[in-house]
Amino acid sequence: MSKGKLAKFVDxxxxxxxxxxxFSVVEDVPFALKGQWREQxxxxxxxxxxxxxxxRGEYAVGLARRYPDRNFxxxxxxxxxxxxxxxxxxxxxxxxVAFLRTNIEIIDHFFAPGEVQEIWLTFSDPQMKKxxxxxxxxxxxxxxxxxxxxxxxxxxxxxxNFLFTYTRYVVEENHLPxxxxxxxxxxxxxxxxxxxxxxxxEGGELPLTAERKSACLIHSTPxxxxxAREEEVDLMSSSPSDPGLTPKPRTDWQGGESDGxxxxxxxxxxxQQWLDRGLSIKYLRFRLPAEGELHEPDVEIPLDxxxxxxxxxxSSLKTSK
Length: 321
Prior knowledge:
321 residues; alpha/beta; Rossmann fold; 8-stranded mixed sheet; 27% helix
C-alpha cells in the first residue's frame, strides 16, 4: 500500500539530503548552504547541476547515478512527488544528489553567484497564459544569472510545442548561443534530418538565418548519431569573418560546459505518458551569458491543443505571446 501525502512529508522532514524552504518561510529563515553547497553538503568541488521542476526527481536521480563526479539538486514545491526520488536516492546511498523543496520564483535565494554550472528543465508546465511564469522566460533567465556561471548551460526537454517554440523565440530575440535544437528527440526518420534547416523555418514561423543554421545543425538527429553530428558543428565554428555562428560545444565540465547528449536517454514517468499519447519530445540546449539586456519576444504562438491526463484544454484562445 502506497504512503499517503502526510506520511511522505514526515519522511521528507527526516531526510538529510532534503531541504524545505517554501516562500512562506524563506525570508525568516536564512539558508546556510547558499554559497556553501560543495563545502558543507557535497564535500567536494564538483560542478552543480539543478533540475528545476523536478517532480518525482527521476532525472536528478538518474543523472546522479550516471555521473558520480557531478552534484545534482532537484527543485520543486510539491513534496509528495519529490518524495519518490528523495527516498530512492537515500535508499541507494547516492551522495551526489539533494532535493530542495521551494518555489522556483525564489530560486536565487539559495545559490551564490557562479555556484551552479547547469540547469535542466524537464517537462515544465508551459504556462501558456502568462509569460513570466514560464521557466525559459526572461523573468527566470535573469534570476538564473544570479547564480549560474557565465555561459552556463540550460537544457529544455518538453512535449509542449508551445513552450519549445516560445523558447526558440527567446533564444533568437536575445542572440543566446544555441547548441542543440530538435523537434523529435527519439523518433526521427531520414526524411526529418535536415542538418542545415531550422525547425522554425520548416513550420514557416521564422526565417532561416546564418545563426540558426549553426544553432539547429543537429536538428532531428538520432541519439546514436548525435556525437558525429556535433563534430560537424566545428565546420561552422565562429571566426572573425563570421562571428555570429556558434562554436563546437566542448565535452568537458569546466565552467559548466558539457556535451550532454548521453543524458537525453533518461525517460521520466510523465515523459513516457507523452510518448504513449504519440507526442514527440522536443529538446533545446543553449547558453546563458552573464551580461546583456534580455527582451521578451513579441510574437503570437499557437497554443497546445491538449492538456495532461487526457483533459481537453480550457481556453478558447488559439494563440498567446
